[in-house]
Amino acid sequence: MTSWQKILKNSITSPGKLAEQLGGNSREMELVAAKYPLRINSYYLDLIKKSGEPLYRQAVPDLRELDDKEGMVDPLDEENLSPVPNLVHKYPDRALFLVCSECAMYCRFCTRKRKVGKKQMIINDKTIAAGLEYLQATPEIKEVLLSGGDPLMLADQKIDRLLEAIRKITSIEVIRIGTRIPCTLPMRITPGLTAILKKHHPLYINTHFNHPAEITAEAAAACTRLADAGIPLGCQTVLLRGVNDDPQIMKSLLRKLLAIRVKPYYLFQADLTRGTGHFRTRIETGLAIMQQLIGHVSGMAVPTFALDAPGGGGKIPLTPDYITHLGESLVFTTYKGLPCSYPNQILV
Ligand SMILES: *Cc1c(COP(=O)(O)O)cnc(C)c1O
Ligand code: SF4
After folding, report:
1. Residues of the chain with confidence (pLDDT) below 50
2. 88 lines ligand 1 (CB under 6 A)
3. For residue 344, is it within any domain?
4. Among 290, 276, 198, 179, CA closest to 236
5. Report field, pTM of the whole predicted structure over 0.85
6. Is 272 touching ligand 2 by the criterion CB < 6 Å?
7. How many domains does the chain have?
8. Atom of ligand 1 nearest to the CA of 95
9. Other Cβ atoms closer than 10 A to 248
């Protein structure tokens, strides 16, 4: 067994064990974990012990998960947008293909908490074959996004075979993998796995860090390995109350990401997922954070703040308003808050 497999095997999955390690009410956590699975591997558990609240909240079951009347089970309407199980075809030219039901840690705020890590999320050779068949039969799909769960939880050989099968579909140009593993189990990014991924370019990875304390030496090493294999790395952060809803923390996270060669891609407004209401912030919070980022930190570090429209409408960018008036000239405010204008005329 390699070191990452040991770390994963040492995961805490029972509230009793978790209470022994971190304290908390194991009976309450038991109620929550009966509905939404618990897994904290020993790497992330150590990080929680070092860094406290912002990491604790992401991983430890909270009674409020059961007390969310407003939330929707499937806020993005993914099940209705799936022509075959576990393949979401929402945009014309790209498809989201769920290829693994497990993760290296179960995030309490997960958008797919209705099924991730649960028995009812059935993924096997048959569902994978059906997804591949759909991709083959739908040539307008140019990009496939592998997600789950976490695709990098699959064994090396399975990942290799899956990528090979996708590469045989000539209409697919780009493969994108969505994975939280560089953050939650970075030692899984072995030289062996990296060599496999590298065979299937153009391949992009979007990972998922939410707090600067998650950017450890191990996470940096994992991202370096991937970047050295020519894989462009992006990050999809979720704006979470009590985790990163603070401009200074967000700035620190984004700068650290850039320094480990990860380009911040999206900052997501939390979805309306049932069981995650206690994480949600007001839209104004995200807009105010964006205002403190734009112009103040490297443009390379600034993600697009976006909301995934309830009901499957797709991602909508949310941008602070810089425009005061648009007519014969554009009147706007600079990032420093100063008035400015630009003549809106074509000179003949
Ligand atoms: C988010 C998402 C995508 C990818 O959207 P991008 O804006 O290209 O990152 C594709 N399909 C589905 C179903 C999605 O939810
Ligand atoms: S790693 Fe992603 S899919 Fe898995 S539980 Fe966390 S947010 Fe959900």
Report:
1. none
2. yes
3. yes
4. 179
5. yes
6. no
7. 2
8. 11
9. 10
